Amino acid sequence: MSETRPLTTIRSWSELQDMLFEDSWNEKIKRHRSKHVFRGHGRADFELASGLARLGERSNELEKHLLRNFRKYADSSTRQVDSIPDSFAPSNFWHWMALAQHHGLPTRLLDWTYSPLVAMHFACCEQSNMDVDGAIWKVDFDRTHELLPQPLRDILAEQGAHVFTDEMLSSKLPGLDQLRASSIDSKAEILFFEPPSLSARIVNQFACFSVQIGRCQPMTDWLLRHPELTAKIIIPAELKWEIRDKLDQSNVSERVLFPGLDGLCSWLSRQYTTPN
To answer: CA of 119: how far to CAs of 11, 72, 94, 111, 150, in Å?
Structure first.
């Protein structure tokens, strides 16, 4: 499928900053408050698809089995995991799905961030991809939610919110059957929700998730249908090390975004790598 959505190749660090923070001014409150979410990847040709969508044609058939068995086998151990306090045991379907995504299960969720700098990190952190162009996707979540069925828009209006929480979604979409129901399947729209603060990693990455209602498909299809809501910013390979070094100096690195020894070691190994 060819590219039809807005696509721009940046030529400098300052141009990238300008594009990512563009349209962030909120005249109503006289503050800079962007209504966009961002996702960075080391390869510009990466297809924007969830782990579940990447399972192929059987993904929708497998989804219920993956979630059922995750909950079945994880239920007895969640309170024993140091990163999940007893008071934070999953309390609803969306909480469970966020937990599954957080630990690597293929789900229909896709990771995003409110932070342009965090998205820049993920576009310029993999040493194996430093010699190819990267990309950052930018999506207007406020206008995206205007496309949702009225009952879901009503939830946001009642709460005075722009993004859903797991508790808000549970009132209208309490389980997988409702999420996949034929009554909303024809919309095939996207919504964004903030996951519970399951770990310092989610908090530090300023994370949120996108989820497709109805049948799970690659998000690329939705982006191509709504070019007015999205942008794709290409980061040339020759700029990656400059961006990477400036992010490190700004303290945006694995050491902060992945608290713990794994993040520390990733950061150190890159610090002592000589660019090709």
So the answer is: 17, 34, 24, 10, 31
Q: How far is it, in rounded angstroms, from Cα 113 to Cα 202?
A: 9
What sections of 58-115 are H helices per DSSP? 59-74, 93-102
Nearest to 179 by CA among 96, 252, 271: 96
- The rounded radius of gyration (Å) of the Cα atoms in the chain is 19
Q: How far is residue 130's CA from residue 43's CA, in Å, rounded to a whole number?
A: 9
Domain ranges of the chain: 7-49+109-271
Within 17-107, strands assigned E span 25-26, 31-32, 36-41
Query: Where does residue 43 fall: left (phi above 0), alpha (psi -120 to 50 degrees), or beta otherwise?
Result: beta
Lowest mean pLDDT, pick from 25-29, 179-183, 253-257, 270-274: 179-183
Q: Which residues contact 187 (CB under 8 A, 6 or more apart)?
A: 147, 148, 149, 213, 214
Residue 16 CB neighbours (<10 A): 20
- Residue 102: count of CB within 10 angstroms of its CB: 21
For the stretch 195-236, pLDDT in tens is 988 889 999 999 999 999 888 888 888 888 899 999 999 999
Rounded Cα–Cα distance for residues 111 and 269 (Å):
25
- What percent of the residues of the chain are helix, what percent strand, and what percent coil, each to the nearest 5? 45, 15, 40
How far apart are alpha carbons 26 and 33 in whole angstroms? 6
> By the 8 A CB rule, do 53 and 82 touch?
no
